[in-house]
Design goal:
The chain is an alpha/beta fold and 529 residues long. It contains 18 helices and 13 strands. Strands 1, 2, 3, 4, 5, 6 and 13 form a seven-stranded mixed beta sheet that branches. A hairpin with a 5-residue loop joins strand 7 and strand 8. Helix 3 runs antiparallel to helix 4 and helix 7 runs antiparallel to helix 8.
Length: 529
């Protein structure tokens, strides 16, 4: 083979690859109505494999690229906005159906009361969340412009829709695109700069920038710029991880108690004594902890109305240990709160906290009277209503600085974890992830806690009933943990907070600035056309 033949051979694979990319692009853009919806659903479903526990992140990027190509195909059709909206809904439905499939487990805790609701939940919940994607694609379809402008328009509309999903009707920001980086703690360090919503927007832009590679004349510029940007984010994050070593807090030893009590047995009368004795026995193991943390609603009874249980806590804390536990609190007249108590020496109550961000359909029913008339009930089996607390708080814990409690999914909301002007030294997150099933849900929830630690530059101490209990440092690293469905304790040291991060000081203003900058760039590209 001559040198020229060799050169030709080297050039053929790229040309062949380009032809394949073009063919794929033409195929996706040319899909008719029914096939377009089926493909959009499949693309969304596959893209969900980017999230925990699979972490196949390239699939999320390809999913966004595929959705751009579908909107390309909708542009110029008789009803382009309608075609774009339907493709967006199908994509979102597939992604949420697969990514949040674990929600069905919550309805199997008491199958006699709730199993019949699973088919409705399987359609209504992911279908309702998909309305945000549908709205994003409808607006993008209305503003669609050929060329680079459409990439920015798509990313802006989708990114803003994800922000709205985290805020409208109390919000549900689970599996936003930023969490697709779960396999790269280095990239996640960027949330300390601009938060998870901005990382979500930029991630959508990265995926959308791949769409021009599937055109007749592939355009690499946008993809190259975004790839270079994320390479810098990854490199910067790696340097941060290698050079930042938060100090240990002197004299503080934390014990997380993971009783591993199945949700179906938690409130069963025949197991109440056993469950309590397990908490006390695990807490009393050798090791001399200074702070003991129990999970959300650890006692399966009204703790403050049980003198015997309070005596056990007094004995457990007789040598000056602190105890933090989730518990249900009664406010009288059938009103309860999902609460947390902080006990000091000899069981003295140092503080109490009421969960302020309640779970819809779990702890309260939206449109309660209407839904109850249809036979729907909230998942928690307590008669009466849950009332919300008055927002995040910070409490002084003797010898261990200032702690901010977060109960269960309160840790999902980046801009609601710290009281204004009252930065704590650490977070304590008590949760009962047995509601979330045996694998995907708890792992996704743990990743959220790690991202909150990075955003705020604060350690997180996380006690979960059935796992995963963990101690997380201010850079999101797991310093100690106990896996799913394991009974035991996690003993570890508490890390000191690092300096306040840019995100902790600026909050969602950074997201707004990035949105404005990209909108201006989209306008310039549109004018250029």
């Amino acid at each position: 083979m001559t040198p020229s033949d060799n050169d030709a051979a080297l050039k053929k694979p790229p040309k062949r690859a380009l032809r394949v990319l073009r063919a794929i692009g033409e195929l996706i853009r040319g899909l008719n109505k029914s096939r377009r919806l089926v493909f959009a659903f499949a693309a969304g479903a596959v893209s969900a494999l980017a999230f925990e526990p699979f972490n196949l992140f390239p699939l999320l990027l390809l999913g966004f690229a595929a959705l751009v190509l579908l909107l390309d195909g909708a542009h110029g059709r008789p009803h382009p906005v309608r075609a774009a909206a339907s493709a967006g809904w199908a994509f979102g439905f597939g992604q949420f159906l697969v990514g949040l499939h674990w929600i069905g487990y919550a309805f199997m805790v008491d199958p006699g009361a709730h199993a019949w609701q699973i088919p409705f939940v399987a359609v209504l919940f992911p279908g309702g969340l998909a309305l945000f994607v549908m709205a994003a694609c409808a607006v993008a379809g209305r503003l669609w412009r050929p060329g680079p402008a459409r990439i920015l328009i798509f990313a802006l509309c989708y990114g803003i829709a994800e922000w709205l999903r985290g805020h409208v009707l109390t919000g549900f920001p689970w599996n936003v695109a930023a969490y697709g980086w779960g396999a790269s703690l280095a990239v996640l360090q960027s949330t300390a700069l601009f938060g998870s919503y901005t990382l979500t927007l930029l991630t959508i832009l990265l995926g959308a920038a791949l769409a021009p590679l599937f055109e007749l004349r592939p355009k690499w510029g946008f993809a190259a710029v975004m790839a270079g940007f994320f390479t810098l984010l990854c490199a910067g994050g790696a340097v941060r991880l290698a050079t930042t070593h938060p100090a240990l807090v002197d004299g503080v030893k934390v014990r997380l108690v993971q009783p591993d009590i199945p949700q179906a047995e938690k409130y069963d009368r025949q197991y109440v004594v056993r469950n309590w004795e397990r908490l006390i026995a695990l807490s009393s193991r050798p090791g001399a902890p200074t702070i003991i943390v129990w999970p959300e609603a650890a006692p399966s009874f009204l703790l403050m109305r049980s003198p015997g249980a309070l005596e056990d806590i007094a004995a457990l804390t007789a040598n000056g240990q602190g105890l933090i536990t989730g518990a249900i609190r009664s406010h009288g007249e059938g009103r309860y709160s999902n609460s947390l108590y902080v006990f000091g020496r000899n069981g003295a109550v140092i503080g109490s906290y009421d969960k302020f961000h309640l779970v819809p359909f779990g702890e309260y029913l939206p449109f309660e009277k209407t839904l109850e008339s249809l036979g729907l009930k909230k998942l928690t089996g307590i008669d009466g209503s849950f009332v919300a607390g008055d927002g995040p708080h910070t409490y002084a814990l003797p010898g261990a600085g200032r702690v901010a409690p977060l109960i269960c999914y309160e840790i999902l909301f980046p801009d609601e974890v710290v009281a204004a002007g009252d930065r704590p030294d650490w977070f304590v997150n008590v949760t009962d992830d047995s509601w979330f099933g045996p694998w995907a849900g708890p792992r996704q929830h743990l990743l959220v806690a790690r991202v909150r630690a990075i955003e705020q530059g604060l350690p997180v101490v996380r006690a979960a009933n059935t796992g995963i209990s963990a101690i997380i440092d201010p850079l999101g690293r797991l310093t100690a943990q106990l896996g799913l469905d394991e009974m035991g304790v996690v003993d570890g040291r508490l890390r000191a907070p690092i300096a306040a991060t840019p995100y902790s000081r600026l909050g969602e203003w950074v997201f707004g600035l990035v949105v404005c900058a990209l909108a201006a760039l989209a306008w310039l590209f549109s004018k250029g056309k």
